[in-house]
Amino acid sequence: MGDMKVSLQGEKTEQEAKTEKVKPAEKLNWETPKMEDVSEQVMAQPYIRFT
Amino acid sequence: MVNRIENLRAPLLVSWQITRDCDLACLHCCTDSAPGKRLADELNVSEAMRLVNEIVRNDVPYVMLCGGEPLVVPHFFRIAEALGAAGVELKIETNGQRLDVGIAERLAGLPVRSIQVSLDGDTQAVYERQRPGGSLDKAHAACRAIRAAGLPLEITFAPTCMNLHEAAAVIRRAEALGAFRFNTGKLMRIGTAARLWERLEPMAGDYRKFRDLLEEQGRILGGRMEFCYSPFALEEALRASLEEPPATLLVLPNGWVKVAAALPDICADLRRQSLDEAWEAYRGAWRNASVLSSVRRAIGSEIHHADANHWRRLAVSQV
């Protein structure tokens, strides 16, 4: 994660922490995961069904 | 052929078992969860919140919070609300024993795609036989609270020789409770289920009847409730994974990342690595000859899934 940055503002808690999204240069052309790409099958999670 | 995961900057789904602890001791459990089974090295709250930040920073769109029973974890809402506040869509898997109106209303403020409740029987006797200590009334009450809060309800059914005769009744119940999806498949020979396999495994003929029932009910109720049972067997899922590895990170309670549910192989440790590094290791694992050989072995027979919870770290050179 070397060149990624997370900036925490002031005394905020972790939940309130503002996350700055900085992507490694070599990944700028990579596909960003999107919710519309999550198939119904993935949503139903057939890999771990029964807990 | 280049797999999709090679082009994705991050996983589409993080399936996060936030604890192995549970308030029930289900016979069919694939994660070896039960009361008192919390791992000594589970991520603590600050480590869990660090992982939340990693998920958000990497634009992971969908996270499933499961266990064990996620609602027994004191910091469950810190995790869920931090993810939700960042716009990460959520699925929550629960047995419903603790999910009351107050919890449902709190969850209703989050971007929840599904709350999955396990209904493994339609009578208390059958439900409790498979889920010792469980209350079917509480599970039904949880379903009603979920719907009353306007949340999407999904029902899962783990078929065994103990409960298959009630499958039709559970489907009717799921529809009556307002579920949008009925999720099932062949029993997985992993964890507690593997140890109790002789007591649980349905006969082949009963599985055939079950699939016929699912097809029939899918035709009848298809417009009102979705039926999800494909891939039916874990071997089918693994075969599909060889063609197209899932863009999913399976995160264990201690932060380790599993290559696949049916394999014991661990490719990363999110306590020590970033999610970015874990994703890179996962993609590498699906190119690794030894891992691919393990996958093919697991496809060959479900008996090889039985050691899936005896986790082993892949050597660095392997990932």
Brief summary of the model shown:
In chain A, 10% of the residues lie in helices and 0% in strands.
Description:
The complex is a heterodimer of chains A (51) and B (319). Chain A is low in regular secondary structure and 51 residues long. Chain A has one domain. Chain A has one helix and no strands. The longest helix of chain A has 5 residues. The two termini of chain A are 32 Å apart. The N terminus of chain A is likely disordered. Chain B is of the alpha/beta class and 319 residues long. Chain B has a single domain, classed as TIM Barrel (Alpha-Beta Barrel). Helices cover 38% and strands 15% of the residues of chain B. Chain B has twelve helices and eleven strands. In chain B, strands 7-6-5-4-3-2-1-8-9-10-11 form an eleven-stranded mixed sheet, covered by helices on one side. The longest helix of chain B has 18 residues. The two termini of chain B are 20 Å apart. The mean pLDDT of chain B is 95. Chains A and B meet through helix 1 of A and strand 1, helix 1, strand 2, helix 2 and strand 3 of B.
